[in-house]
Specification:
seven-stranded parallel sheet; binds magnesium ion; binds nicotinamide-adenine-dinucleotide; single chain
Length: 393
């Protein structure tokens, strides 16, 4: 039985891996729509490859370029927020949500339709508006399948028992490019050095989040919403080989874990599967060849973003929303070489502490979440010039 699929963020790292999975299983999927940010040529290319019916670009100004790039095909196209919404509204059994950042929240939320599956890569949707997003998904009967490798592994592992018997669910981190660097050396690191991920090849924002370990912090918050596990039952383990992605320790002492070679096509294939798993022609995990796997505790002294995210998860209310917004602004400034590495955590911490006195409750709707998000972005934005000034000196 073929199933229809829409890909949000089709030109990105996850989007392209998804295209590879779909191209290897053309008899199983019909691609309804593909959505991209602003690269008309890249979107047209993936739309042609996949034989999509509709292509939508978020950037209105690139609409003509997209149309031109698709000329000679029967693929319809559009640009701007309405076109993105149209893509999301078109009939699809599965929507793979892989727009990066909080920009993905509105389209991913709009994709919640009864009976649909959302293969969710955009973790920021859950960090920014987890309560509202999950409540709407439950109310509408939408299946949420995590694409994030750690959550995909946990999803498997958790199927071995009941939620109340979970003592601890642990996600692993490769440790990023600075795992073995001293604090002094990390403090001077450039955006280019932070982008050089040792294991995974990913989009630029998540690369920086991996270097600060904020990515793991966001993933703890993501896991909390996906699996209904409170902060005390969630943990992080650094595992440089990135083979074991998630572990569940049960009340009887048994541990169930999810392993795979670090290739996002594996969790993507799993999130797209029907009853049967897809057959993937990828290298197989050869543990004897790898020989040994190593694990260590994360160093929150060198990677303060992880403790900030943990604190936000524990404190609850709107703090995860605020943390996520401040982080996006700070990461943008770091990628533009305006601020230094540890300015990211400092800015996030300052914005969180400014807001924490107000005890803003967890946003009950996506609109509310986006309101808090805007406020926190502004607060972070106000802090950037002073840090940028020091960086210039
Ligand atoms: P990326 O930067 O490579 O791609 C982002 C995609 O989103 C692109 O197609 C871009 O055009 C599109 N986009 C950006 N802004 C948009 C907007 N306003 N409207 C519509 N489209 C827009 O990012 P990525 O690495 O593929 O990550 C995508 C998401 O998946 C992120 O939320 C990330 O945290 C998550 N994720 C990624 C990986 C990975 O290995 N790359 C792993 C786990 C989770
Ligand atoms: Mg991950």
């Amino acid at each position: 039985m073929t199933r229809s699929l829409t890909i949000l963020g089709a030109t990105g790292s996850i989007g392209r891996s998804t295209a590879d999975v779909v191209l290897a299983h053309q008899d199983e999927f019909r691609v309804q729509a593909v959505v991209g940010g602003r690269d008309a040529a890249a979107l047209a290319k993936v739309a042609r490859q996949l034989g999509a019916k509709f292509a939508a670009l978020a950037d209105e100004r690139e609409g003509d370029a997209l149309k031109q790039a698709l000329s000679g095909t029967s693929i319809e196209s559009g640009a701007g927020p309405t076109a993105v919404l149209e893509a999301v509204e078109r009939d699809a059994d599965i929507v793979l949500a892989a727009i990066s950042g909080t920009a993905g929240l509105a389209p991913t939320h709009a994709a919640l339709k009864p009976g649909r599956r959302i293969a969710l890569a955009n973790k920021e949707s859950l960090v920014c508006a987890g309560n509202a997003f999950m409540a709407d998904a439950r109310r509408l009967g939408v299946e949420i399948m995590p694409v994030d490798s750690e959550h995909n592994a946990l999803d498997h592992a958790l199927a071995a028992g009941l939620n109340r018997d979970v003592e601890k669910a642990v996600i692993t981190a490769s440790g990023g490019p600075f795992r073995t660097w001293s604090r002094e050396r990390i403090a001077r690191a450039s955006a280019k050095e932070a982008s050089a991920h040792p294991v995974w090849s990913m989009g630029s924002k998540i690369n920086i989040d991996s270097a600060t370990l904020m990515n793991k912090g966001l993933e703890l918050i993501e896991a909390h919403h996906l699996f209904d596990l409170e902060a005390e039952r969630l943990g992080v383990l650094v595992h440089p080989e990135a083979i074991v992605h998630g572990l569940v320790q049960w009340s009887d002492g048994a541990v169930t874990s999810g392993l795979a070679l670090p290739d996002m096509k594996v969790p993507i294939a799993n999130a797209l599967r029907n009853q049967r798993r897809l057959k993937m022609d990828l290298p197989r995990l050869d543990l004897a060849a790898i020989g040994r796997l190593s694990f260590e505790r994360p160093d929150e002294g060198r990677f303060p973003c992880l403790s900030l995210a943990k604190a936000a998860l524990k404190a609850g209310g709107a703090l995860p929303t605020i943390l996520n917004a401040a982080n996006e602004i700070a990461v943008e400034a770091f990628m533009a070489d305006q601020i230094r590495f540890y300015d990211i955590s400092e800015i996030v911490e300052r914005v969180c502490s400014t807001f924490s006195g107000r005890n803003i409750p967890a946003p009950a709707t996506v609109a509310e979440a986006l309101g808090v998000d805007q406020e926190a972005r502004q607060a972070a934005g106000h802090l950037i010039p002073a840090y940028a000034e020091v960086t210039r000196l």
